[in-house]
Structures are given as structure tokens and as C-alpha cells.
Specification:
This is Iron ABC transporter permease. The chain is mainly α. Helix content is about 75%, strand content about 0%. Helix 5 packs antiparallel against helix 11.
Length: about 350
């Protein structure tokens, strides 16, 4: 039986329906005891011009805190999941993730420098930390690419080794700076564990254009990823330039990753777990995996963020929740792969 390489409308509609349900539930329910019926009444009042059952303060919690946080979680989840799928296609490695080429290390080092050098951000229109994290993530990937090119080879193995080297170096710099400024360690590690607890509409507008642009490029290039999976020689014989395609895909995926890191810190496992889930449910073609990863990734992180903000009186770091979800998933993957091999 021939594997399906196109996205069925029924599958797409099902994914969108699940995403809408998750968004609605995450907006209606929260740590604040507003009552989902009253929140629904507020939303209905805004749509119809009726009278809201919420006070002005309660309405502000919904529209200034809860709604932008849910939307931002969706953007971050979509960015990380689609970027992870693209990295797995480029490197032909199912364990590749968006941080493979030093994006996490670059963002972490830049964030640490900002925490140390600019502890007070009062009066800034846009906080320096997200800007530095964005630039650091792109800088880490750029250094990996330049180091790989300087070796005289453009293969994925060389680029992967360059990413490992750059990530190790940037992490060493970050650790050195932290040891010189031990009072900042808690703040830095809080950011590195990931979270959306200080998010608002400003963060949504900061991330949206980059994630949207990257998503469009990745979806348009999904067919080329399928061609690359056949091998460079076969791809070249079909008129595809493997080096240029890889560069375009890595730039788009890195842009989405940098935007996600800038507004949420480092959130692991999303870029690995979600593409695997999509492959198991809908097929391995990247014309299916990339668009569905955008949808499933958004739903996954919105649900994870809901757990993070409601499971305990304080707020659990979002990266901890995704790690709890990701680790058992890999146990299941290992067991299923062992079953297929036996």
C-alpha cells in the first residue's frame, strides 16, 4: 500500500477542531476562580455588545492576561514543533530538535549577559532580554553554519558537529559569567526553564510576524524535504539543489525557534515529541508532518501551559511540564521500535 503524501482535509479539519477546543477551554478555565460560565458570558458580551457578568478587573484578567497567554503558547508551540520537524528532515535524524545548532546555547548566553549587565529594565519599550535571546539564538545558529562552512564541507554531519562545538563553547561562556555573578543564577535558570507567566499582547505581536513567516516558508518547502529524504544524488537528479534547500529550511526553522525562545525561554521536547506524534497518526510525508506539527504543536503547548498554571498554587515552569510529558513518550517510542525489530 502506497504511503499517503498529501494532507487529507478530514485530518486537517480534525486537527483544527482540536486546537479550537483547547484554546476555548484554556481561556474559559484558569487559576483565577472566575467561573467558566461567567468568562463565556464576558466573551459573548464582547461579541454581541451585551452586558458582561464580570467586573472590570475580572475582564482585564481575561483579555490582558489569559487570552494573550493562550495565543502566545500556541505560537511558541507551533514554532517549536514545525522547526523540530524541519530539523529532523534536514538532518534525517528523528531525534533532531530546534536547539540542535546552538540556538538554545546562544539564547542562554545572551540572556545571562543581559541579566548581569542590565538588571533594571524600567523605561524600556521592549525589554532587552527577549531581544538579546532572539539575537543570541540566531547568532548561535549562524556561528554553527559558518564553522561548518569553514571546514570545507556542507554535509549535515559536518554541520551537526559544528553545532555541538558552538553549543559547548557558548554554554561554557554562560557558565563562566554565572560563576562571576552568582546572585543572578536563580533568575537565569528561571528563564531557562521556560514559561509564559509574564506574557501579554506585546509578546504576541513580537513573535507573530517571525513565526508566521517561518511557517509559510516551511509549509511551502515541505515537498522539498520529501525529495531530500531520497538522498542528495536523487534530489539533484530531480532538479533540487540540496545545499540551498537545507540553508533555506534552516534559516526559516531557526527564525521560528529564535522568536519562540525570545518570548518563552527554553522549552524542551516540543520539537521532538510533536512531529513523532504526527507521524504516528497521519504519516511520514513532510507535506503532512509540517502543517500538522504547526497545529498539534500549538494545541500541545497550550494544554501544557494550562497544566503549568493550574496544577499547583504557585506556577510550575512550563519546561518542566513538557519534560514530564516528553520523557514517557520516548519510553513508548523505544518499546514500540524494539517490538518492530524483534
Amino acid at each position: 500500500m502506497r504511503a499517503r503524501t498529501t494532507l487529507r482535509p478530514s485530518v486537517l479539519l480534525t486537527g483544527l477542531a482540536v486546537l479550537v477546543v483547547v484554546i476555548v477551554l484554556a481561556v474559559l478555565l484558569g487559576a483565577g476562580d472566575l467561573g467558566w460560565q461567567r468568562v463565556f458570558g464576558e466573551i459573548w458580551a464582547q461579541l454581541t455588545g451585551g452586558r458582561s457578568p464580570l467586573s472590570e478587573r475580572e475582564a482585564a484578567i481575561v483579555w490582558a492576561l489569559r487570552v494573550p497567554r493562550v495565543l502566545l503558547a500556541g505560537l511558541v508551540g507551533a514554532a517549536l514543533a514545525s522547526s523540530g520537524a524541519a530539523f529532523q528532515g534536514v538532518f534525517r535524524n528523528p531525534l533532531a530538535d530546534p536547539y540542535l545548532l546552538g540556538a538554545a546555547a546562544g539564547a542562554g548566553m545572551a540572556a545571562t549577559l543581559v541579566v548581569v549587565l542590565a538588571p533594571s529594565t524600567t523605561g524600556w519599550v521592549v525589554g532587552p532580554l527577549p531581544i538579546a535571546a532572539f539575537a543570541g539564538a540566531l547568532g548561535g545558529v549562524g556561528l554553527s553554519w559558518l564553522l561548518g562552512r569553514s571546514a570545507g564541507r556542507t554535509g549535515t554531519a559536518t554541520l551537526l558537529l559544528a553545532g555541538v562545538a558552538v553549543a559547548s563553547f557558548l554554554t561554557a561562556v554562560q557558565t563562566f559569567v554565572q560563576q562571576l555573578n552568582t546572585e543572578t543564577i536563580k533568575q537565569v535558570y528561571t528563564w531557562m526553564l521556560g514559561g509564559l507567566n509574564v506574557s501579554g499582547w506585546q509578546e504576541v505581536w513580537l513573535a507573530l510576524p517571525y513565526v508566521a513567516l517561518a511557517a509559510i516558508v516551511l509549509c511551502l518547502c515541505a515537498r522539498l524535504l520529501d525529495v531530500l529524504s531520497l538522498g542528495d544524488a536523487e534530489a539533484a537528479s530531480l532538479g533540487v539543489h540540496p545545499g540551498r534547500v537545507r540553508l533555506l529550511l534552516l534559516v526559516a526553522a531557526s527564525l521560528a525557534t529564535a522568536a519562540a525562545v525570545a518570548v518563552s525561554g527554553l522549552i524542551g521536547f516540543v520539537g521532538i515529541v510533536v512531529p513523532h506524534i504526527v507521524r504516528m497518526l497521519a504519516g511520514a510525508s513532510y507535506r503532512v508532518v509540517i502543517p500538522l506539527s504547526l497545529i498539534v504543536g500549538a494545541a500541545f503547548l497550550i494544554a501544557a501551559d494550562y497544566v503549568a498554571r493550574t496544577i499547583m498554587p504557585g506556577e510550575l515552569p512550563l519546561g518542566v511540564v513538557t519534560a514530564f510529558a516528553g520523557a514517557p513518550f520516548f519510553v513508548l517510542v523505544l518499546r514500540s521500535s524494539r517490538g518492530r525489530q524483534s
